Structure prediction request, 732 residues.
Amino acid sequence: MQSGQTLSEMVAGLRSSRGLSQEQLAEQSGISVRAIGEIERGATRRPHRETLRALAGALGLTPDEQEAFARSARTAPPPDTRRRRTVRPALPAPVTSIVGRADDLAAVLRLVQDPAVRLVTITGTGGVGKTRLALEAGWQAASRFEAVHGLDLSALREPDDVPQALAESLRGPDPATVIGDGRWLLVLDSFEHVAASATAIAALLAGCPRLTVLVTSRSPLRLRGEHLWPLTPLSTPDSDDPAAMAGHAAVELLVERTAAVRPGFALTGDNAATVAALCRRLDGLPLALELAAARLRTQAPSQVLAQVRDLHGDTVDLADRHLSLRRTVEWSTRGLTGPDRRLFGLLGAFAGGADPVDVEAVFGAQPHSLATLAAHSLVTVTDRAGHPRIGMLDTIREVVEDQLTSTGDRDEHAAHFFRLVCAGDPRLGNEQDNVRAAIQHAVDAAPALLHVATVRALTGHYVARGRFAEGRRMLAGAAATAPTEQARAWAWHGAAVAANQSGDPEAALALAASAAAAFGADPDGRAATLTLIGNAHKFAGRYTDAAAAYTDVLDQARTTGDVRREAIALNNLGALAHDRGAHAQAIEYHDAALRRKHELGDRRGVAVAQLNLGAVRNDTGDHAGAAVLLTEAAATFAALGEPGSEAFTLALLARSHAGLARWDDATATGKRALDLARRAEHAQATGLALLALGETAAANGDPAGVALLREALTFPIGLPDQARIHDHLGGR
Prediction:
């Protein structure tokens, strides 16, 4: 034991030096695994005297060691009674003990807990245990941070997708805004897939002065200030003597995991040489050892060793550990037959994990096959917000992808998720990795899946979630391979919509030209393209050009008697007039649009028209008239199950209440809007709700109003609303 060690470091180090797992120490001491884990994580700093005595006995401490043990507990700082908040990491909870990594864990913990260290990268080959070490470090370091958040990057392939994925994971428009100057630990797993996005991490670190980032990657990020911790395989014994094996982590892991699935299994004089040889053959790689343990459930160590020898041969270059691991993964799949093998291949088509509901929809109910794959350590089953999630380690997925010779499973996977997109399934908020994988497969190998309805639904999917850069890229890819001219046209149109929404109106106009050429004389396509052109000109501030495009659509609609298209054109002209400050004209257009929507019996369209008309009336000072319209619109959106639209409307209604000096109503409505907007991940509605609450607070002399208004500026609200905030803030 080293002087100055904390109790947590002492217990973890002593346990590891004795070759004990947490479960084994618990059994020998009579203390629960949970209690031991809390001591090693530092959550319990001053355990009861009887607990210390039991641990000392189980660890076989000398009198001097026992005194140092007790002293470390006596001198530990007491719990901070001023703060009772427990930080629960937003990380998958480990379901097995971590074996043979006490020194690595202690080193990584020292790094991430040092305020001077901002970026730590755990490097190593696939299957060496980088993810498991990072998760353990995240959980054990949680008490030192205000928040611990993790993001698995293995399903991403484009570096540009990282900031958006991180923003969605943090449920905010901008990660730097969410983290701010908070003491956060951000755990980014499998960074090697998106190595080019390292600059985004550098920018995040620069903007968040108390943020620490822990990364796992097969190679360094090569950023300034990066601290590397290379992770090597577990130690393997050179000798076949059972007495010499106790301190070797590879043996400990293999025996512990085998005993978990084959009760009573232990290292003996009869099997020691075989177990040692097996650990050496598998290079001490934890994933390979886990897979071998699954085989040892029903086979003798000598049988498994013979299979591994046949697999690798006598001349395998053990330095090429990644190749060795791939061969081990391939070997572990050979025992799969029938439905089990089919399910394994299908799960390889999923990205970012799979919901059992989706697996059943594509494959049918096969709980036995899933249990078989889990027993073979080929898949993981974790919990996500109370729902099971089927996952697959990245190294295993690589093997599955290489083995897939038929596109049938991928076709079925893509078709299923396209059906969900077309139906607007609310679960898609957690399935963006699978949506992206479906589109990429369709573009690469199954363009027949890119129907007009699918492409149009994908446009709505991306716009509704604010994933404009990805939507533009994916829809442009679909446009290049879609099977029909109409599907290609709508894909170009969708890419243009996404480009305009992302703030690039010139690119939107160029993409709109491609859409127009593909649409030809199609009246719906032509009208949609003209509307898009009007939107792009409006965004660029070319109001005359925008009005010309919208008016062209209106004239066409009236000529053909298309009342639906006429209502859309009237709405766009009203919004344009509102932006230009022509309130009387805006009211005239929106009134006309409202009448057309009533004629059509379009319940949602009526609510949209009421929302727009209410917004204009607020700006003219007719807050009472606005409140009537906005109350009806909010009720409709609530009934239709559109929380984002409801939140947007309620934020405007809160402004109406404030204009009428109904301060309690304004505050209550604003809070309701903010809650809905955040849960719906609607950035603009969030900003408007903060604006309404900030103005209400400021009007009543509440100093919290300034902070609310400043926070509102971090969200994508319109220029007039930004100007309102700056007027309120003045020089503050």
